[in-house]
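Field: COMPLEX_INPUT
Field: COMPONENT_COUNT = two
Field: RESIDUE_TOTAL = 491
Field: MODE = joint
Values follow.
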Amino acid sequence: MSNIPSELKYATSHEWVRNEGDGIVTVGITEHAQDLLGDMVFVELPDVDDEVSVGDDICVAESVKAASDIYAPVTGKVIEVNEDLEDSPELVNSDAFGDGWLFKVKMEDAGELENLLDAEGYKNSIDED
Amino acid sequence: MTNKTVLHAKHLASGAKMVDFYGWEMPINYGSQIEEHNAVRQNAGMFDVSHMTIVDIQGTDAKVFLRRLVINDVAKLTVAGKALYTGMLNEDGGVIDDLIIYFFSDTNYRLVVNSATREKDLAWMNKQATGFDLTITERPEFGMIAVQGPQAKAKVANLLTPAQIVAVEGMKPFFGVQVGDLFIATTGYTGEDGYEIIVPDSAAEDFWQKLIDAGVAPCGLGARDTLRLEAGMNLYGLDMDETVSPLAANMAWTISWEPSDRNFIGRDVLTAQKAAGDQPKLVGLVLEEKGVLRSHQVVITEFGNGEITSGTFSPTLGHSVALARVPRSVKVGDTLEVEMRKKLVKVQVTKPSFVRNGKKVF
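Field: COMPLEX_OUTPUT
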């Protein structure tokens, strides 16, 4: 069973969300998701200053095996993207919850975090897959 | 019902991620398929191909039967051990399977066919064999290990008996020889040097372990696919099937038209197709920008649409490559467009071969 850190929030579409405070969150894909996709070869990130809404497909993770849309787990403005992924997309595989992060969003409404799953909820959602 | 190869436990012991492959539980990777791919291009890797079907055809009529069954001509095989690659067609000229035929004598041949097509292949061969004096014998009691890469032969040599070393010394590509327990062939599906080795089930696990100990990296079906695609080798079911002519699948080179009186199955249809010149063709496509070409994406050309039959990211080249079936008027060097995830990307047309012996070849 893959690692599911308890301090993070999750979307059923396999994004994780870390609350950095001040309404800012970091977003990535889970270890389970990267394992399903296999070796990552390109990550197409959103642009800084993009306005995103919950559920928008704003990013594409492309592995040798498949291309997968990544959805905005919260509404707000993209304030930073992980430029290291440009040259090292494999960071998503090797450190999904750390150096493999994708982008940061300044949330419009920090209350949206309550709509996301906790670690146990996410674990249950992937057990049902 | 899931089949397991004789090496199944070894895969689990190496941490393989297992997937279903046409009824066989096979390793897709042992961690990173890109690392496995690179091991084959730069050093040595090995694949469990025990799921593939070995069929021996023996008897007085073996030669005349095979001259009818397949599009290449086994009469070209005169040196014991020599192999050829070819296709087996239905009456409509569609490819039932692609296969390798090893020649031992005019009354003794060995065929290696795909596992996914095993049942229909055997049914077709048995049906066509009516009236011929021969036996068709499947050989499930063997495992098969493909050891591939620039260092593959040197590493295998450590495991061979003196007699086996002498037998494979200087063996040319596309030959096979049985010495002692092992049938050792200079064939493969990666575009690298190496062997495909048929080993009795009872000896397979030990042989596999000794290869690991010699520094040969276990590689899964994921790497096998990126390697064969870089080498421009077809995968049955994607690049051709029973609805596709060999002329439309880069298999024309496997057809022997001479002698003209050899009446192989599908000949009439192929002759008419060739005269009409209207079959599409299989070409290579190269995408240098970001993104990965995938099977079934539409290829737009001024002569009409084509389709990607298989596409992937090429770890050796660092960008995507694909095989695509396009109208015959498309030429190498043309720029085409592919519909990829709601947008159009530009691709270059190449010959259907991208990497050989670790080097870019287009």
